[in-house]
Amino acid sequence: MKDLHTRHQAVLPDWLALYYDEPIELTHGEGRHVWDAQGRRYLDFFGGILTTMTAHALPEVTKAVAEQAGRIIHSSTLYLNRTMVELAERVAALSGIPDARVFFTTSGTEANDAALLLATAHRGSNQILAMRNSYHGRSFSAVGITGNRSWSPTSLSPLQTLYVHGGVRTRGPYAALSDAEFTEACVADLRDMLGQTRGVAALIAEPIQGVGGFTSPPDGLYAAFREVLKEHGALWIADEVQTGWGRTGDHFWGWQAHAGSGPPDLLTFAKGIGNGMSIGGVVGRAEVMNCLDANSISTFGGSPVTMAAGLANLTYLLEHDLQGNARRVGGLLIERLRAICAHLPAVREVRGRGLMIGIELVRPGTDEASPDAAAAVLEAARESGLLIGKGGGHSTSVLRIAPPLTLTVAEAEEGAAILERALGEV
Ligand code: PMP
């Protein structure tokens, strides 16, 4: 019998790589820990790629899922569905968008697809502005707005996309600018783009770029963008798939770091809300959400079992103030990591917000990205029982840290100590 890694070729195309030289088969989880098939325990600093928002095997979520599965599992959009209505009401109220409507999907990709469908239909235009270095998913339209082109397996697209500056400024001509100068330069770039086009449907942006390496624009950048977009009637879509639900600590949504922007016209969410169950969705102004003229439904979006998980998970998150925990424990963790990395020549920057922290690696003594070092740190951390992620632009040289939001101070310290050793070895 071939091993599971070899058999994986049956389900993954060649262009999709697994993490680690010897990939891990996860068999169970609890709290902030997961176990592999060999019984090894790992502290999870990547939250199952940010999908495990609160904790692994959170009893409240497990119970809600089991109870709902025992009652009924069905496709949801043809009949009244209490769990979906209840979660939609809560998401709408939390979104900050007045008179909001919610449409549930099964993934972040599909949520962005739905947002693009709505924005293009509303504006009668298939022109979209997206950010350089962005990631928005894997469908035909989502890869067409993904500025991080190494994540786009095709250059074909149903959309006309133009990429603007603002998401990342770690290198290139913008690197030396102050926040105010950078914002001014990006606004000028946006104006220039809008001047070259007619009737742009929307700008889509991650408030903090996730796959792109946890890079934050200066606070207020999207407020400045919003003014310009409004002059042209273009919508703003905030992709909150990674930044939503309080992960960034100071804010419940990433867009809230941009005081004065007002809520986005459309906000997409996914990942953490289901704590691992497949939920995505778009929430937006009723006028935009109601612009489609067809019985366009999704069979599985909003299925009662995933909605039950989402409701239980959201309730836990709010009742335990996990946004506050992200701020407190994330603040301590980033401080500790900055202290560890201050004298390491291979670390270019430790950055982040709340429990969304990136460590960018370079070849010592240069400003050259070092994907090899990132891969080596990942392996070394795994050897010591810590799972982290990686990301970045064309070279994957940023370590990504995004643990479940219930992370304790002791666990943060334990993970930081493992990272200190792993970084030291590399
Ligand atoms: N948007 C962002 C910002 C993401 O990070 C991701 C996933 N990494 C997606 C969209 C796509 O979500 P999914 O993988 O659920 O399709």
TrEMBL record:
This is alanine--glyoxylate transaminase. InterPro entries: Aminotrans_3, PyrdxlP-dep_Trfase, PyrdxlP-dep_Trfase_major, PyrdxlP-dep_Trfase_small. Homotetramer. Belongs to the class-III pyridoxal-phosphate-dependent aminotransferase family. Its EC number is 2.6.1.44. It comes from Streptomyces spectabilis. One of its GO terms (molecular function) is pyridoxal phosphate binding. Its cofactor is pyridoxal 5'-phosphate. Keywords: Aminotransferase, Pyridoxal phosphate, Transferase. It is an enzyme of class 2 (transferase). PANTHER family: ALANINE--GLYOXYLATE AMINOTRANSFERASE 2, MITOCHONDRIAL, PTHR45688.
